Batch of 2 targets.
Target 1
Amino acid sequence: MNARINPFRGTGIALVTPFTLQNEVDYPALKRLVNHCIDGGVDFLVALGTTAETATLTSDEKQRVVAAVCDAAAGRVPVVQGVGGNDSAKVAAELKAGLQLGISGVLSVSPYYNKPTQEGIYRHFIHISAATDLPIILYNVPGRTGSNMAVETTLRIAHEVPHAVAIKEASGNLEQAMTIVLGAPEGFDVLSGDDNLTLPLVACGAHGVISVSGQAFPKTFSQMVRDARAGSLDAAQVGHYAMLGFTQQLFAEGNPGGIKSALAHLGIIHPALRLPLWPVSPQLDAALAQSVHKLQQHEL
């Protein structure tokens, strides 16, 4: 009997890392953001993902950010830590060294830039999975890594690694995601990695999402996911279409510039980013301000 259970279902949030106008990590803003998300009904949080601008954080900042997220969450929802890279030995060493107390799982991206073969991707995850007992969420995002993790590779890992519990599937390929749903062992779930594909994916058997846009409007987004998972698709469509245009705007000039602009209009953070990222254009910022106002009215 397969005892594997994925504890990360529903709405997960890929948190941004707020910065001050002096480009330091803004820990009070991070606490506000965590409380905003939890008060809005999300199910779990992800620290140090792509949206967190993790590549620009020092080792000390990474530790402090994760500790701050765990402290602010205070056990109310699970916290997942992003731990990935394109050096398998280095990722395994980081996992063996131990993660922040309070972390419930790991999100690990398929190796980027190197463009490994499918066998290399498989071997990477087998190698790093031996370095931790924590539940692992695989992460396939070919638009950033330069290589797609094939269905066969995902399922091979899912069947061979007992503590691999899900994949954040951000290929944008619905057929690929559905084929994983069909072939996955019990306890291994698909989580949407594309906010605007969450409703159709959940309707096809996915069990949630790791969302960017949901941190701006967690109440609307998490209710949409709950409705979809309950089979109330008419109700889920209300939230889906309320968020659709806003989410398209968020990614129009790259992530996390869009979501940081939106969160700034909500008064939660400053819109500061670290180079090489740059804030969104004045035109998009103005459009996001309008969308934020409209969605605020929707939530009343």
Note: The two ends are 47 Å apart (CA to CA).
Target 2
Amino acid sequence: MTNTTSPLSGGTADFGVFAVMDLGTNTFHLLIAEGTMNDLHEIVREQVAVKLGEGGISKGVILPEAFERGLNAMKEFKSKIDHHRAQKIRAIATSAVRNASNGQDFIQQVKAGTGIEIEIISGDKEAELIYQGIKATGLLTDENALVIDIGGGSIEFIICNKDHLFWKQSFEIGAARLMERFHRTDPIPPDAVEAINVYLENTLTSLFDAIKKMPVQQLIGSSGSFETFAELIESERSDNFDLTKIKHYPFHLDELLQVTGKLIASSHSEREANKLIIPVRVDMIVVSSVVTRYIIHRLGIRNVALSIYSLKEGVLAEMME
């Protein structure tokens, strides 16, 4: 998915041109932009379904086919970065590269092939950058919110408001890991859904302890699957909904629960036929739906919103400071 809108493509701007790459377990993202976070002009927003963790995430290795897809995506990104003459560049790698035995080899080959230096960040740093991205949308208020970012390799939880990040933790229980462990038949059977719920209950004890001390009034889903939830809901109303035109989106709880329930009950072929579900998300959207519903019910959440901004916008905010 590429969005190239700026008339300044191929030139430089007063503030310079910035390029950020978020190299996730499933998807590699490229954002090229100029201006400031308050007056941001996107030049390119692209995502490539690299599936870096495919087949190897539970073994802690990037398999050869995924390795090659990753290298090819980085070469494509470098071409676009050069074309738009980005002066400031950062590439951030998260769970899949962080935990892979050949992650450093991937970093070295990307540097050799493109000149791009990849930074591996910790789960804690990932959560901090996600917070900065969401803060830039103006969605946060004085009330405490729980941010959830469901990645392929990890899930980040953040308790925060517009002024402070109070608590954060990254759990290596992302959608690719949950799918490999629990979603082995399709549609996912009820006992597998229950097994995921039990697993989350046992794994997220530190989150629940933190919530007891710092109650939250809102759940904010950070891009990813929550974008798909919003698009599926809005498709029932009209064809005019455009994620690129907004920074955040408020859910009606009953609609969110209805759409996640349908996704959990759906078959692979049904999801694949739905053009609103991007290919890399066709199967992982199921476990993402299970996690979302579990958190809503477990914490008694009534107010849920989507933040379009996430990790890469947090990196951009850090660069623009």
Note: The first strand starts at residue 2 and ends at 4.
